[in-house]
């Protein structure tokens, strides 16, 4: 049985590619064979990580997304060897067409029949993007009956409304039985840890590459601390 991890969120710029990179690093360090795919036709950030050997899937026909090209993605899923993990990063532009394709063609049902495990991952952020990311989560809950991992990214602001934390939100309380885990991306001081993470993301480096690089020693120390916290979150999630 192979496991397919698909990152889906309709709001752009909330950290989907970050989630894809963190998940990939965790799986690789856990000794897994990992196959990576990027379907974002606008910002193929995930494909920029050279050491992950990401397949950039061409889904465009001229200026338009061609849903039939998602057939290639399904073929890649079906061809996965047992015990392999696939991480698929999807852009905001592909959220609606890919979700529709998956539902209309009963792709998850077909993959389940072949013994593949499907995990959906979505990002919830604070600040102005909170309503949009919650809307994306609701869309996934309505369309699919598969485990959903929620990544809480507070970089853009605290994830709360009227003093209520995410665990008190209606969408969480009513669907807790369908949510596989909450994964919190550590929040640190932006002046130090934040700038170090920005460097890591800009350079498309893994945490391991950062430790082996010529980055300043305190930058490497802070990144080491952040990665340790992320690993703890991911280990607790059961992934």
Question: What are its keywords?
Answer:
two-stranded antiparallel sheet; 9 helices; 41% helix; alpha/beta; seven-stranded parallel β-sheet; 11 strands; 239 residues; Rossmann fold; 2 domains
- Count the strands? 11
Note the quaternary state here: single chain
Main sheet summary: 7 strands, parallel
Number of domains: 2
Determine the fraction of residues in helical runs and give it as a percent range: 40-55%
CATH C-level of the largest domain? Alpha Beta
Overall average pLDDT: 94
Layout of secondary structure:
Elements: E1 3-7, H1 16-29, E2 33-38, E3 55-56, E4 60-61, E5 64-65, H2 70-78, E6 84-89, H3 95-104, H4 107-113, E7 117-125, H5 130-143, E8 148-153, E9 160-161, E10 164-165, H6 170-175, E11 179-184, H7 190-202, H8 207-211, H9 217-237
Describe this structure in words.
This protein is an alpha/beta fold. The chain has 2 domains: 3-185, P-loop containing nucleotide triphosphate hydrolases (Rossmann fold, 3-Layer(aba) Sandwich); 188-239, no CATH class. It contains 9 helices and 11 strands. It has helices at 16-29, 70-78, 95-104, 107-113, 130-143, 170-175, 190-202, 207-211, 217-237, and strands at residues 3-7, 33-38, 55-56, 60-61, 64-65, 84-89, 117-125, 148-153, 160-161, 164-165, 179-184. The strands form 3 sheets. It has a 7-stranded parallel β-sheet, with helices on both faces. A two-stranded antiparallel sheet has the order 4-5. The protein has a two-stranded antiparallel ribbon with strand order 9-10. β9 and β10 form a beta hairpin. The mean pLDDT is 94.
């Amino acid at each position: 049985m192979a496991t397919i991890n698909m990152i889906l969120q309709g709001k752009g710029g909330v950290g989907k590619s970050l989630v894809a990179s963190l998940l990939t690093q965790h799986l690789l360090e856990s000794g897994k064979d990992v196959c990576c795919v990027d379907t974002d036709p606008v910002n193929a950030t995930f494909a920029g990580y050279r050491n992950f050997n990401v397949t950039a899937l061409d889904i465009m026909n001229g200026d338009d997304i061609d849903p039939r090209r998602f057939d290639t993605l399904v073929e890649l899923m079906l061809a996965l060897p047992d015990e392999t993990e696939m991480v698929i990063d999807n852009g905001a532009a592909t959220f609606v067409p890919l979700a529709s394709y998956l539902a209309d063609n009963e792709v998850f049902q077909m993959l389940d029949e072949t013994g593949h495990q499907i995990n959906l991952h979505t990002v919830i952020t604070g600040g102005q993007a909170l309503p949009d990311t919650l809307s994306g989560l609701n869309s996934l809950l309505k369309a699919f009956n598969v485990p959903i991992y929620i990544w809480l990214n507070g970089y853009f602001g605290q994830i709360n409304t009227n003093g209520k934390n995410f665990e008190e939100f209606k969408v969480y309380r009513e669907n807790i039985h369908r949510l596989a885990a909450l994964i919190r991306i550590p929040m640190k001081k932006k002046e130090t840890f934040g700038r170090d993470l920005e460097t890591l993301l800009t350079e498309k480096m893994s945490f391991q590459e950062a430790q082996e690089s010529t980055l300043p020693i305190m930058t490497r120390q802070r990144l080491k601390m952040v990665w340790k916290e992320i690993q703890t979150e991911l280990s607790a999630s059961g992934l």
